[in-house]
Amino acid sequence: MFRTMRRIGQQQSDEVAIEVLKNAKRGVLSVIGDDGWPYGVWLNPHWENGKLYFHGAKEGHKIDALRRDSRASFTVIDGGVKDEGGWAYTFLSVVVFGRVEFVDDQNEAAEICRRLARRFNPSEEDIENEIKRAAAHVQVFALVPEHITCKRVHEA
Asked: Computed from CA positions of residues 125, 108, 150, 68, in that sequence, does the dihedral angle turn out positive or negative?
């Protein structure tokens, strides 16, 4: 069902891919949008228990698209390493293909939001205040991987 990577010599292991995903601060979630048009949006991921978790508003283009068709992909790159004396970078690129599951239990969703928020804000007080303020308006969902690719890319 999924294509074999064309530049197979650049392919990295699933373990490398998961490390990139665990450390990613943001990436692009792509969905099948209105009238079949692709729609991509930047999101902050949280890798846990073999799934990528995200949060966002309970309504809008992304949520409408995912409720119509649960298929999605998520793309990230690591920070890369710049070539000495040059302009090019070498980086790892990861693409996750899968289906989205919505987290409808509010307590579970709040816990996932806490864990995600700790990646960006070490203040438990700030996190709890934000959850109290916004939790009722937040939808948490998970991308359950069906296929993951990771490759080493050299810009040159």
From this structure: negative
